[in-house]
Amino acid sequence: MQSNAKLQPLLSPDSIAIIGASRNPGKLGHVLVANLIRAGYKGKLYPVNPAGGEILGLPVISSIEQLPSEPDLAIIALPREQVLGTMHQLAAARVRAISIISAGFRETGRDGFELEMAMAELARRKNILLLGPNSLGLINTDCGLDATIAQASPAKGSIAFFSQSGALCSAILDWADGESFGFSKFLSLGNKAGLSEADVLEALGDDTNTKVIIGYLESVDDGEKFLRKARMVTEKKPVIMIKAGTTQAGARATSSHTGSMAGAVEASTAAFQQAGIIQVNDLESLFDLARAFSEQPLPQGPNLTVVTNSGGPGILAADACESVGLHLARPAQKTLDILTEALPPFASIYNPIDIIGDASAERYRTTLNAVADDEYTDAILVLLTPTASAEIEETAQALIDMAKKCAKPIFACFMGEQRIGTGRDMLLAAGIPCYNYPEPAVRAIEAMHAHYRWQNRPYPVEVCFRRDKGKAERIITKARAVGLKELPFHDAMEMAMAYELPVPENRFVRTSDQAVRAAKKLGYPVALKIVSPHIANRGDVGGVALDIHAPHELRQAWFSITTRAQRKRPDAYLTGCLVQTMGPTKAREVVVRFTQDPQFGPLISFSLAGPAAEMLGDISYRLAPLTLQDAQEIVREIQSIPLLRGARGAEPVSLTAIEDILLSMSQMATDFPEIQEAELNPILVDAEGALVTDLRLTIG
Amino acid sequence: MQSNAKLQPLLSPDSIAIIGASRNPGKLGHVLVANLIRAGYKGKLYPVNPAGGEILGLPVISSIEQLPSEPDLAIIALPREQVLGTMHQLAAARVRAISIISAGFRETGRDGFELEMAMAELARRKNILLLGPNSLGLINTDCGLDATIAQASPAKGSIAFFSQSGALCSAILDWADGESFGFSKFLSLGNKAGLSEADVLEALGDDTNTKVIIGYLESVDDGEKFLRKARMVTEKKPVIMIKAGTTQAGARATSSHTGSMAGAVEASTAAFQQAGIIQVNDLESLFDLARAFSEQPLPQGPNLTVVTNSGGPGILAADACESVGLHLARPAQKTLDILTEALPPFASIYNPIDIIGDASAERYRTTLNAVADDEYTDAILVLLTPTASAEIEETAQALIDMAKKCAKPIFACFMGEQRIGTGRDMLLAAGIPCYNYPEPAVRAIEAMHAHYRWQNRPYPVEVCFRRDKGKAERIITKARAVGLKELPFHDAMEMAMAYELPVPENRFVRTSDQAVRAAKKLGYPVALKIVSPHIANRGDVGGVALDIHAPHELRQAWFSITTRAQRKRPDAYLTGCLVQTMGPTKAREVVVRFTQDPQFGPLISFSLAGPAAEMLGDISYRLAPLTLQDAQEIVREIQSIPLLRGARGAEPVSLTAIEDILLSMSQMATDFPEIQEAELNPILVDAEGALVTDLRLTIG
Predict the structure, then answer these.
(1) Which of A395, B44, B308, B407 would be B15's cystine partner, CB 3.0–4.6 Å?
(2) Which domain holds residue A82?
(3) Which chain A residue has the Cα nearest residue B108?
(4) Model pLDDT for residues A364-400, shown as the tens digit of each residue
(5) Cα(A207)–Cα(A214) distance, rounded to whole angstroms?
């Protein structure tokens, strides 16, 4: 506990009052006192209960007023009706932190919600750190503090855990108990009326006894703050999180559970990604990764070498390796020479290095020494199956010896249970992650390498744009004044120009005669597009005609697109049409959008135009404001990027032109949170540049 | 062992000779005898060794000639040089089955391969069942037979396991030893010189003591036979398999390991799917599913009800549910009424049913009874976290009691380790699968429901086509006679017509004058396409002009497509051009292909035309011959199917027309294995029908 001074009264209190302490072992107020004593808390403990007497050898204080000193931390385990009153008393007694175990607040409906708001307000006004309510409590193994109502205390370790679900905390404590899995801090956030995930993350980031932070979240309260804090923490240490409620079904379950709003999955995924948080989808991965990160250095490259005494598991490791995007290292010639010399003739010296079924510990040792020195190997995975001649404990020892002198990360997979048990325990005790199967080991290595890349990414470049914000403001104000939800096309184009987006010249016209005159001024070829406040997507109703070369074609086009649109949408009022200069004819079409996410703010997306990209989910996302790198990544992340890079003989298009548009839109989304949604669809892009031929802006 | 009579001498031998039996406990020949005795084999055992004497109390026979009777099974554990000679002697002694533990054959190179071929040939000629070589042996717990060199014997159970990797066998036996996981049969296939996976699968399918078959394969020898046998077996019981070597890296590792050719992943995936085999990607899932399938009935619908004492895990279960495509059941009003009555006010009666942290075993019992009777619930998942008031063993008992009277499948997830240990053991002992986390439980339920759908699928309809096979044969023969690798366009079109594929009228022309004359005969509009034996994809070189309406346009098109193609591919010889009637103008474009897979035969694929489908992997596959259902599924399986069904205001196209083309191509691929590859690209399809406007046929 050094620099996380802010949470000191909560995490390392000098004294603790337990409000609602009880002599009855079945009560939470008793469990709290018992846990504090059992874990060996060294500060002062004040059980508080009007009945007085003694609990587990401690004298009971009969009321908060009677406390002999001002406790740093008070823990409340009272019926919910008494909580707010008690908080007032504690505030008067100048308590600095309160942890509320009591439940029955926000999660139970309107009354509970209002009560909780009052508690939060009180804590804020009195500057009291508030954990919960509806929390299981907290643990700090550095100072022997177990202020939970859980049944088990974890061992000391370097992993910090925080969770929005209390029940999950108890499951994890029970699990850790049997798995030699140690924690530095353990925090049950409960309803987060006071301390949020961002506060806790920041404190754990500063905690020198914490090497890895893992967390379970159902909702994020202040997305922007969370992102900012998380980004700083992940510079220093890995943060691995599971976000529950990422599907429709899960989100429904979330809101019925905590009353919290689940935001768009895409937004939270983008947030985690941009903050360098490692997101996992299931609890097993959370702990697999936590162990790996806490015990081994990060692989500095993607090249994995697999050493195995059996072919099958080696193949499974190779499959897993390619599936997650790691490479099997190609060992240096020197390494191959050593292996050829040292290994029996039927062994495979290529990676996976199969030292075959009769491999002794000595053969493992020789192979591992060669691999440890191999310049093309960034990480090592050692597989062992309990063959008749396997020397299991001796092999474990060989790994342990090598790990001591090797700077590269080392992982083990000893397959089986009974015979390999001792070997596995030796490895775990020595800090070598040991898995039952090759696949989770490979997934852990990949996550660690990704984190290495994150920590060594180029310094983010903030981009500031020339823009006419005053003009933009006038456009928005005007639209709001008349209660428009969608900006008229003309105004949208003006907005685009205020943000220096490349737009075609265009004229709004009400008759085909006007259209012909407009086209003459713009110069052929032109495009003709219907305009209607009721039709969002012109393409869907056939309301677009392209590449018109002459007046008679233009008149024909007018007739056909307006009748087609009117037939498809008889309810829609057609204001007129737009005549536009044509964009480059051999351009590819892409789409840029943003929406305002309630938790994380503006979410920018990029994809190719057309329904296929959407249907196949080939869309990439980032939260605004975008850095230059974000803009570069969002373009290159779509799976179909080869189509823009010139696959199949097509000319490559200017990705920079797209990046510029993304950055402008990021600026617009940040400048005007009142723009609920923007869609630039399509943007024509070729080798020379880009052209936004259509855009829609919706205001809230 | 009833109807798997074919393998009886191997699986249930009356007497066994151990060739290479040894008194030295470090030798495999000793381990074999020791394992046979330990497992309690009831038949006659004849250890054979020229040294004579006694091994573990059994008299040693000094040579094969001296055997007192003809043993059903002989096990060979000798150096590889002696194996073939020994097999000759055993054949003379009329042994009916041989299991070869010895290694050093196909997996070691050319000499070993030839030796193995000779052994296989001998076994075939003498009608001897041959397991291995390079096998760990086999186990049949029904008759106390452990003929392996493994260190552990498994408990009796209803799961049969076969594996191409021997080392994996030892790992699994060691693992099962600690996990109360029982096996009926256990077979290490080794190099599969004699018995193949298809033979073993058939035998296990007939075995009445086996409820579930699980397997690990690196290669399939005779794909067609495997498919045929597997399809019969999966009608009766679930087959769950892991196929290793499914990535490039894995495939390279496979071929260096066993010397076997890894086929296209798409082909083996299609084969597993068409045979109703459940394919998993990692070992953990293999055993998770095996346990679920062996212990619970199949869910008859996709509706899962989750009962939990904590919100967080409930949300994770809901997320997992939607991710795999299951539904959270909507309980009937009657169920809701019962729950409202019985549960405390803060409980959530909707699914996941959250009976909250202080739930007693009695509350679980009440809830489970209501859910068991709920008509909209097909499967039940019960989550428990060890909260302070959780009654863990009593809750386990409540589940067990309910499972006895409830016909629906029930799964448990007791989270934690220490405190929930006894409860979990109770559940496992009672045949209720119990997982550590919600996600694997949900995945198991999904796999079981998918298998239910497989077993209840409509009866497959075989389709036979009118076709002019004689004409097709003449075309192929002519092309082969002159050594052509790709059929000239004209011949390809003739083939198409022989298979009654819908093709446009077309003329091959050598000059633009000829083109104009041809277009006049066909009638405008026409398409013009270059023809060159050197250019596979005309589109890539700009060699296609569409929708030509007049002679002057045609001449212009001729000039531009030929010069464009010549500029892009100066090396290519242009034979001429094709003039074609235009297809429907508002059609969508799709692609049908087939290739001959070395292991599984013709592999048919379907996708939308254009590079996006390929890049995003939105292609579906089936092996020929296709049934009518296969053809229907392959079309509907692509993710972008809504585009063909009329998403976004487009007209739906005729899927039946595509199915007809798929079925014709399946017939062609089956009729002519010498056609290595076929590509119909694009096929124009609209509401009325389809038109194959281009096709390429490559012959081998």
Answers:
(1) B44
(2) 5-292
(3) A346
(4) 999 999 999 999 999 999 999 998 889 999 999 999 9
(5) 14
